[in-house]
Specification:
With about 400 residues, the protein is mostly beta strands. Helices cover about 15% and strands about 35% of the residues. Keywords: Hydrolase, Signal.
Length: about 400
């Protein structure tokens, strides 16, 4: 059975509850770029790629999201910098495309799209001024999920204009005009793409089961269609359901997702080991940051249509979650939120509790994914929280 799925116009999907666990890889790369070719060299946190973008001499924070077909601007920011355009004025090509806008788990009606006239924006000193159309969306939930204020999303329309070099060991993203020599990396694989779509890889699931999966850097996790999950079950493959449903963010708002731990995927002859994936009914197949975080260094080179990387192993074993506590970034704090009351009652917690410290450590909002991981995986009776509820601090041991 060959699994070959085409996905179109996924916007973004960020987990509010789940965590992405980074791999531990080894090889140190050679110097891959001359400084003159670098557009931007930026620190990133918790695997999310967030970069400064300048519009009208003002700096904004944009999430780099290869799962987004086009640039997305937060509604409040959009009012400051540009104006809406009517769907009726679009070129017939764009009318056709925007009539079929999908997220990973849902579909967006064109009537609910706020289309924008693009304006010049700058990444570093590099101008991006030839995008065809932008979309305005309320990104407040994405801000809550990512632990930092998000003003917009860099979509694939901008992504494919540059080379993107990620060093997971150092937590640095380099954007370059010139692609690095492939000798910088120990492995390279060609990828596919198409207008408005993500780069695509093929993963092997054995017995000639090849899965075509898009790369979605705006997604904490990874996604498989329900049909493939059913196929794995029928073939008696190793797939373990995670008991609880999870709250996640998509362009359509908050959604509930089911997750599994799947074993047996292989990428470019590298066994992936265990990976947490989400199920969807929308025939969407995406690899997110819980896959890319396993590489030591990697680079997307659109001019060569190559993905190059350094790794000795992608293999990882996942610890089954011990508990499920949702966390969001709100009012400059990390707080417990988006949970079932019954789940929280057993821990004597409430939605809205502000997290002051965990096991004696104060975590910054940008470390939200690490906080989710700690809350999920710390053994029972080993998790000490200092929370603030209605202005009063409390100590809770879980």
């Amino acid at each position: 059975m060959n699994i070959y799925k085409k996905t179109t116009f996924a916007v973004f999907s960020m987990a509010l509850l789940t965590s992405s666990l980074s791999g531990c890889l080894v090889k140190k790369p050679e110097k891959s770029n001359e400084a003159a070719n670098d557009i931007l060299n930026e620190k990133f946190y918790s695997s999310s790629l967030v970069i400064p973008v300048t519009i009208n001499n003002k700096s904004y924070r944009f999430l780099v999201d290869t799962g987004a077909s086009t640039t997305v601007i937060n509604e409040g920011t959009a009012k400051e910098i540009t104006q809406e355009v009517s769907y009726s004025t679009l070129h017939p090509f764009h009318k056709k495309i925007f009539s079929n806008v999908k997220t990973v788990h849902d579909k967006i009606d064109v009537e609910n799209l706020k289309l924008l006239k693009p304006v010049k924006m700058f990444i570093g000193n590099e101008e991006v001024g030839d995008n065809e159309i932008w979309i305005a969306k309320d990104l407040s939930l994405l801000t809550q999920s990512s632990g930092t204020n998000i003003d917009g999303i860099i979509g694939i329309d901008t992504f494919r204009k540059f080379n993107w070099l990620v060093d997971n060991k150092k937590g640095r993203l380099t954007i370059s005009r010139k692609s690095p020599p492939i000798s910088t990396y120990s492995h390279c694989v060609a990828y596919e793409d198409a207008y408005g779509e993500s780069p695509y890889f093929y993963l092997d699931y054995g017995n000639n089961n090849f899965i075509k999966m898009g790369i979605d850097t705006g997604n904490d996790g990874s996604d498989l269609g329900k049909d493939f999950i059913e196929h794995v079950r029928k073939q008696k493959g190793k797939i373990t359901p995670i008991e609880y449903s999870f709250t996640a963010v998509e362009a359509t708002g908050l959604i509930k997702i089911r997750q599994y731990i799947i074993t047996g995927l292989t990428f470019n002859n590298h066994p992936v080991g265990e990976m947490i994936i989400s199920e969807n009914n929308n025939n969407q197949y995406f690899l997110g940051m819980n896959f890319l975080s396993r590489f030591n260094q990697y680079a997307f080179m659109p001019s060569k249509m190559l993905f190059c990387y350094n790794t000795n192993s992608l293999y990882k074993e996942h610890q089954y979650p011990i508990r499920h506590i949702g966390v969001r970034y709100y009012n400059e704090h990390l707080e417990i939120f988006y949970n079932d009351k019954k789940e929280l009652d057993q821990y004597h917690l409430k939605d809205g509790d502000v997290i002051k410290s965990i096991n004696g450590i104060n975590y910054l909002p940008r470390e939200i994914k690490k906080v989710r991981e700690i809350l999920s995986l710390t053994p029972k009776n080993k998790l000490t929280l200092i929370i603030e509820r209605l202005g009063v601090k409390q100590k809770i041991v879980i």
